């Protein structure tokens, strides 16, 4: 299973990456929109963990490119803000499968990644 993490906070991205790798996932990390675009062009992902607020970039642009290039990839949105707390993110991104706080325990996030990677 290939997972892409798009998160501006390197310590948080690395924490998630370690947990996912211990569970057997292949994990790539992008800290910027451009890095995410490049990975979406060169790799195939089953699940993308995408921070709603990617510093100085657009999470919705990243999700649009993911939807275009990899329509089967499931996107788990994470955030430490109240953006889209009304659930509207699911109307904006057809690939969205979950919306979680960034403070979600890494083990719980890992379990969700495995669940959505198996989901049809």
From TrEMBL:
Sequence ranges assigned to domain Response regulatory in this UniProt record: 2-117
Gene3D superfamilies named among the record's database cross-references: 3.40.50.2300
PROSITE patterns: RESPONSE_REGULATORY
Annotated keywords: Phosphoprotein
A Pfam entry, by short name: Response_reg
Record-listed 4-aspartylphosphate modification sites: 51
InterPro entries membership: CheY-like_superfamily, Sig_transdc_resp-reg_receiver
Gene Ontology annotations of biological process type: phosphorelay signal transduction system
Name of this protein: Response regulator receiver domain-containing protein
Organism: Antarctobacter heliothermus
Lineage, uppermost ranks: Bacteria, Pseudomonadati, Pseudomonadota, Alphaproteobacteria, Rhodobacterales
């Amino acid at each position: 299973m290939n997972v892409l993490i798009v998160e501006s906070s390197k310590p948080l991205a690395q924490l998630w990456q370690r947990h996912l790798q211990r569970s057997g996932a292949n994990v790539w990390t992008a800290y910027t929109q451009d890095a995410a675009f490049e990975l979406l062009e060169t790799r195939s992902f089953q699940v993308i963990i995408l921070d709603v607020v990617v510093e100085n970039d657009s999470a919705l642009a990243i999700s649009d490119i993911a939807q275009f290039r990899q329509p089967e990839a499931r996107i788990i949105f994470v955030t430490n803000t109240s953006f889209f707390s009304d659930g509207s993110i699911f109307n904006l991104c057809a690939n969205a499968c979950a919306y979680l706080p960034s403070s979600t325990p890494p083990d719980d996030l890992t379990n969700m990644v495995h669940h959505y990677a198996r989901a049809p």
